[in-house]
Design brief:
The protein is of the alpha/beta class. It has one domain: Alpha-Beta Horseshoe (Leucine-rich repeat, LRR (right-handed beta-alpha superhelix)). 35% of the residues lie in helices and 20% in strands. The chain has 9 helices and 13 strands. It has a 9-stranded mixed β-sheet with strand order 1-2-3-4-5-7-9-12-13. A 4-stranded mixed β-sheet has the order 6-8-10-11. Strand 12, helix 8 and strand 13 form a beta-alpha-beta unit. The longest helix has 12 residues. The radius of gyration is 19 Å and the shape is globular. 36% of the residues are buried.
């Protein structure tokens, strides 16, 4: 498999390393199948998106077979419309991506955590995603649901980590909506914050919930949608007997 991964950059790098990587992708003998752009310490931001804009336009002929795309995005509050178009062009260059990983670094420049605008979420959509992992986003409930709904027909595995929604929004409502609308085979939820209310206030680290089969996903979501606090215990649904035990509590 042709896999390209950008692990880091120099402190004063404003996109040069990413440009070099994307140039290598465009000149590769075989089409890329996996691409990781940036990590938590060095997210994509306005300056780097400006730098890679020209390279992104040349990717269509080499990313049409891309199956996995991982992006780390920072300083969303500083992005302009051209930056968002660059993200959109990157997604359009990879129309059959099956695994999409999106990590948002919302406080990377010392600013307060920024709400992810719907226009940014819309630019990051594609149509064949089977596995979607979203980390670190501050969202409105309606924007989270709209993003998930776009992938409804293909989505089979979902991970939400360190996701914050607005104080008047409700994860219980989101869970109820997902279990009614989707047929998901695997679901992981970790440290979901509703306004200032963590899933796990006792330990301060957020409980992790893992469901790894279709029936377990629906049963777990029904359970969580009826819970005001989501509890503090970790559990893994792996068998029908485990599901019955949890639901009987």
């Amino acid at each position: 498999m042709s896999e390209y991964m950008l692990l880091g950059r120099l402190p004063d790098d404003e996109g040069e390393t990413a440009t070099m990587l994307l140039t290598a992708v465009t000149k590769a003998e075989f089409p890329a199948q996996s691409l990781t752009l940036y990590r938590k310490q060095t997210p994509l931001h306005h300056e780097s998106l400006t730098r890679i804009a020209d390279s992104v336009t040349q990717l269509r002929c080499t990313m049409f077979q891309l199956k996995k795309l991982a992006l780390t995005i920072g300083c969303v509050h500083k992005m302009n419309i051209q930056d968002i178009k660059t993200l959109g062009s990157l997604m359009k260059a990879a129309p059959i991506v099956e695994v999409l990983e999106l990590e948002f670094i919302t406080g990377c420049c010392g600013a307060r955590k920024s709400l992810i605008p719907p226009i940014v979420l819309a630019a990051l959509r594609t149509n064949a995603v089977k596995t979607l992992r979203i980390t670190g986003a501050v969202l409105r409930q309606q924007d989270l649901c709209a993003t998930l709904y776009h992938h409804k027909e293909s989505l089979r595995a979902l991970t939400l980590r360190h996701i914050s929604i607005m104080p008047r929004d409700s994860f219980a409502a989101v869970f109820d909506w997902i279990q009614q609308q989707f047929s998901i085979d695997a679901l992981t939820l970790h440290w979901l914050q509703q306004g200032y209310d963590h899933m796990d206030e006792t330990t301060g680290r957020g409980a992790e919930y893992t469901f790894d089969d279709g029936e377990g996903v629906k049963a777990g979501l029904r359970l969580l949608s009826r819970s005001a606090t989501f509890g503090i215990r970790q559990f893994h649904m792996r068998s029908s007997s485990t599901r019955r035990t949890l639901l009987d509590r």
